Amino acid sequence: MCSAWFVTDNPKHQHCSPRCGRRADKDKRRALERNAFVAPVSRPQVYERDHWTCQLCREPVARDQVVPHPQAPTLDHVIPLARGGTHEPANVQLAHYLCNSTKTDRLQLDDRTLVSLRGKVGRMGTYPPPPKIQEICPYST
């Protein structure tokens, strides 16, 4: 889960620590409660893929912070589980804890919310406009 190297002689142990195991189990349980498709998702791989940049506000994420710090890294589902999304690498992205909490179960944040978050989350800067819902989910109306 955290990409730390570890050695075990028990094939049931797939995580380096109980904390990593609990985190993976929580993600999987939330998805299964909504009858969503579940595939293995590696947080470090998603974070590196997204270059440690929040995909909602386009500001850098604090690598050393943990939830509930506003700049802590979290996994955000592009199409939320509550809206029929899946728990797989293609449907998750890196987001600040504050941005992810503000987004809740919406498909995206509106421009007004993004502007207000920019001042709260990190340094000010420009960001590209958010994608249209049709670009994220071709089946939305």
Number of helices: 5
Structural class by SSE content: mainly alpha
Q: Give the integer mean of the pLDDT values.
A: 75
Order of helices and strands: HHEEHHH
Beta-strand content bin: 5-15%
Query: Main beta sheet: strand number and arrangement?
Result: 2 strands, antiparallel
Are there runs of 5+ residues with pLDDT below 50, and where? 122-128
Walk me through the structure:
This protein is mainly α. It has helices spanning 18-33, 43-49, 97-103, 111-121, 133-136, and strands at 73-77, 92-96. Strands 1-2 form a two-stranded antiparallel sheet. The longest helix has 16 residues, at 18-33. 20% of the residues are buried. The model is unreliable at 122-128 (pLDDT under 50).
At a glance:
This protein is mainly alpha-helical and 141 residues long. The chain contains 5 helices and 2 strands, in the order H-H-E-E-H-H-H.
Architecture blueprint of SSEs:
Layout: H1 18-33, H2 43-49, E1 73-77, E2 92-96, H3 97-103, H4 111-121, H5 133-136
Antiparallel strand pairs: 1-2
Provide keyphrases for this structure:
141 residues, globular, 32% helix
